[in-house]
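DATA CLASS: polypeptide
GOAL: derive C-alpha cells

***
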Amino acid sequence: MVSTTGNPAVDAVIGVGISMPVEFASVKNTQLLTLASGTDIIGQSIKMILDTPLGSRVNNNEFGSNVRDLIFEPNDMILKPLLYYAIVSAIQRWEARITITTVQYATEDVGTGVPPNQINITINYIINATNQPGSYVYPFVKNAMPYSSVIQGSSNFNLTSQSMSS
C-alpha cells in the first residue's frame, strides 16, 4: 500500500520512500516494501537526522546531530537552548524540504503526563513546496531505565559455584 499525498506534483517534490521501520507489503504483487510520503517521510527523515550521532555515518561524517551528546547533561535551564541549537542546526542543514517555525518542549513539570526522564520536543514546520504546516514529536529520553529497574544480580551468586569450577 503506497501512502502518498494524492497529488503527484507534491509527491515528486516531497518524495516517496521506504517506510521506517522497514516492513514488507501486505498485498502481494504490488511492491515488496511499504512506502511512505508526505509528512510521514519528513517525520522519518527528522528522526533519522536527530538519532544519528555526528561522525557515525560512513562516507558522510557530517550527517546527523549533536542531540544524543546531550543525554547526560543535567535537566536545567541550559539544556533546552542546547537542544534547540542541536535540533534546528541539523534539520536546517539536512532537511531542505521544510522550514522550522517553532520548537516546543513538554516535560513532567508541565503536567502533560510525560515520564520524568523524558522531554517531548515538538518541532513545528512548514513544507516549503506546499506551505502546508506539519509537526513531529521527538521523544528525548534522558535515562531509558530507572536505576531501581536495572538488574543488579542475585544476592546468592557465588563465583566459586559448581558451574564455574567444572
Summary: The mean pLDDT is 76.
